[in-house]
């Protein structure tokens, strides 16, 4: 344990030096991105370990653990602390996943990969962005590297299955927000029942440009159309998202609350989110004509 702590300190210090070369956009407009939030058990072997808004998830299995998203570059220490407060070890992480290749979800991915030796699995559309620190993301226009580049060990495709310790996660290709934005469907269970869980990457529109003017992503409108339609037809019990604010974490769970998976049963809230995003998309398309 002492050696792991020393390694963690070294890597974090080294990452801070290297990160000076990375132009991570300021999070000052989003204090909730760095505000700590107590980790807790969502359902079965699924846990929330993120900040007040940048959602990170831990899936615990007998063969090691799966970590989904890592928040900002500064989030590594908080993720390690949250995992340990649950009684687990960051060093037991075997698989790293993400929902989109943006700095607010990929920031600490490189340092955590180095610390754990976990395998990083990324959707095909975001694989190049992961490995070049976001330079190839259409919104950067090849000018901004906003997170530390990280090597991809497995490129995922729509409906691919990630397996570990009895868990099977199906990756769903939901492009638009980024070329490789994705969601995950899987089952967890507790002493009472089984739960179908969706960790959704909601297709928010992040560009002010007309879609027709984005030469680096000529299929962006087509991808948004596909994703919005596909997400309407998903079946699940529990839904979560890349940002806690998107699924109303602060309303559904208060720090210290008892274990209550049913608090995250909210198909109406999910449908409303998709409806609102469809309206945003339709408005965007009107201005693109």
UniProtKB/TrEMBL annotation:
Segments passing through the bilayer: none
Domain Metallo-beta-lactamase: 53-243
Entry-linked NCBIfam families: bla_class_B_core, bla_subclass_B3
Name of the protein: Metallo-beta-lactamase class B
UniProt organism field: Dyadobacter koreensis
């Amino acid at each position: 344990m002492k050696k792991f702590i020393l390694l963690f300190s070294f890597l974090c210090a080294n990452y801070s030096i290297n990160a000076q070369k990375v132009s991570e956009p300021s999070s000052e407009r989003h204090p909730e991105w760095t505000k700590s939030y107590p980790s807790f058990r969502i359902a079965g072997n699924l846990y929330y370990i993120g900040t007040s808004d940048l959602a990170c998830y831990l899936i615990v299995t007998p063969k090691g653990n799966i970590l989904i998203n890592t928040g900002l570059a500064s989030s590594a220490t908080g993720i390690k602390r949250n995992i340990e407060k649950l009684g687990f070890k960051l060093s037991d992480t075997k698989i790293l996943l993400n929902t989109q290749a943006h700095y607010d979800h990929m920031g600490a991915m490189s340092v955590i990969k180095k610390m754990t030796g976990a395998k990083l699995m990324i959707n095909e559309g975001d694989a190049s962005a992961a490995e070049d620190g976001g330079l190839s993301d259409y919104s950067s226009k090849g000018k901004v590297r906003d997170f530390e580049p990280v090597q991809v060990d497995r490129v995922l495709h729509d409906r691919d299955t990630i397996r570990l310790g009895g868990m099977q996660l199906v990756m769903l290709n939901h492009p638009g927000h980024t070329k490789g934005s994705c969601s995950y469907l899987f089952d967890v269970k507790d002493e009472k029942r089984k739960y179908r869980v969706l960790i959704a990457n909601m297709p928010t529109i992040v560009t002010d440009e007309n879609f027709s003017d984005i030469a680096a992503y000529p299929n962006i409108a087509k991808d948004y159309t596909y994703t919005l339609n596909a997400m309407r037809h998903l079946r699940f019990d529990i839904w979560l998202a890349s940002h806690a604010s998107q699924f109303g974490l602060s309303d559904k769970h208060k720090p210290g609350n008892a274990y209550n998976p049913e608090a995250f049963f909210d198909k109406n809230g999910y449908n409303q989110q998709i409806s609102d995003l469809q309206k945003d998309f339709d408005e965007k398309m009107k201005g693109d004509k």
